[in-house]
Design brief:
It is built from 12 helices and 5 strands. The protein is mainly alpha-helical. The strands form 2 sheets. The protein has a 3-stranded antiparallel β-sheet.
């Protein structure tokens, strides 16, 4: 390979550097030092580039170039100290360039988004309405279940939740009566000629919200029922069983519209549609199996009557060192002593174990996982 006068640096590398450096800057003048391996077994080299290298006033070049010329004049070379150098970084992403590209695409993305919103404005308004209804109903119900006595008229608030949910479901099915969306509730395709992607999301999403509204309504009814009919310690099991049943049902309802959507072979080969359907069934079977196991486990827990402790004796009450329940700060009502020897009102500690599995005093593990026992409903939408 041809060499140049810059310490044995290949001419091809110098040419590349000349193309990369700014106009008017010579590659050989910008080279501060060239480090070659001492053992001679490697062909790699490191180039440190200093674009600010200047030629001294006496006409001699600094760095290695000066040492090279000095060796010709005196027959030997001296080690010259290179000036402070800067490491050139090639290929670093330019954030300003990326920002300019983003600014160029942003108006077109906004136009597409605005067009989609306008074309589906009714559906977007319905979606905002059902999301708001779900959030409000779920939040209020959880607060009422956890703090019923703090509300002056909890029954009226609970009845208002039911009325609000029924009104939303009726409005959806009445406005879109021609689509017959209710047919998805019994695993049938609504009255729609063709299921495209947007219609698929519409059918699945509306059906999922309707099932969640029904679940919240049933939990509200359980909350309204007097304690004489359903004990406080069993209400959490009712909430849990309703929630796991709704989740299992919500997992099954999207199967029918998805099958019609994947089997549509009008734009492609029929074998490809069946291939996609096979993948969907394989993935869906795993999800349905998980939800089915959760449903069976919830049913078994629902049937078993769990006692968190035993009735304390008079000596146990004296040993506890207090005449009031640590949770409600009032006189004991149906006291129960846990396995950790702490005593609480049965209703108070039952409501506590619907949210926490440990003792309120010592944090000893007493109850099982309290998932969905507080009256809450899953927020996520089952889209597939």
């Amino acid at each position: 390979m041809p060499q140049n006068r810059s310490g044995g640096l290949p001419t091809e590398v110098v040419n590349v550097l000349n193309d990369w450096l700014p106009v008017g800057v010579d590659a050989e003048e910008a080279i501060g030092a060239v480090s070659m391996p001492s053992d001679g077994q490697s062909n790699t080299f490191v180039v440190n580039i200093d674009p600010n290298t200047e030629e001294p006033a006496n006409g001699n070049r600094t760095g290695h170039g000066h040492a090279h010329s000095h060796s010709h004049g005196h027959g030997h070379s001296h080690d010259a100290q290179p000036p402070p150098q800067q490491t050139a970084t090639i290929g670093r992403p330019d954030l300003m360039t990326l920002w300019k590209l983003t600014q160029g695409f942003a108006p077109f993305l906004l136009l597409i988004f605005a067009k989609l919103l306008y074309d589906h404005r009714l559906g977007v308004l319905i979606l905002i309405g059902v999301c708001g209804t779900f959030y409000h109903s779920n939040t209020v119900l959880v607060k009422l279940v956890g703090n019923r006595d703090s509300y002056p008229y909890p029954t009226l608030k609970l009845l208002s939740i039911i009325f609000f949910l029924v009104l939303n479901v009726f409005a959806i099915y009445f406005v879109f009566a021609d689509q017959q969306l209710y047919r998805s509730l019994y695993f049938s395709l609504p009255g729609i000629e063709k299921v495209d992607f947007w219609m698929l999301l519409w059918i699945v999403g509306i059906t999922d919200f309707v099932i969640k509204f029904v679940a919240i309504g049933l939990k509200t009814v359980i909350t309204i029922i007097p304690k004489a009919c359903i004990a406080t310690k069993r209400r959490g099991k009712y909430y849990m069983f309703i929630e796991y049943t709704a989740q299992f049902y919500r997992c099954l309802t999207p199967v029918t519209p998805w099958c019609y959507f994947l089997l549509d072979s009008s734009t492609g080969a029929e074998w490809f549609s069946y291939f996609l359907l096979g993948i969907y069934v394989f993935c869906k079977a795993s999800t349905c199996r998980t939800k089915c196991n959760e449903f069976i486990s919830a049913w078994r827990k629902f049937r078993v009557d769990v006692n968190y402790g035993s009735s304390p004796s008079s000596d146990d009450m004296k040993t506890s060192g207090g005449d009031a329940c640590p949770i409600c700060q009032d006189d004991y009502h149906d006291p129960v002593m846990l396995t950790c020897k702490h005593i609480f009102c049965e209703d108070c500690v039952s409501m506590w174990f619907d949210r926490e599995p440990t003792c309120p005093m010592c944090r000893a593990a007493i109850a099982e996982n309290p998932a969905w026992r507080d009256g809450s409903t899953a927020v996520g939408v089952q889209l597939f």
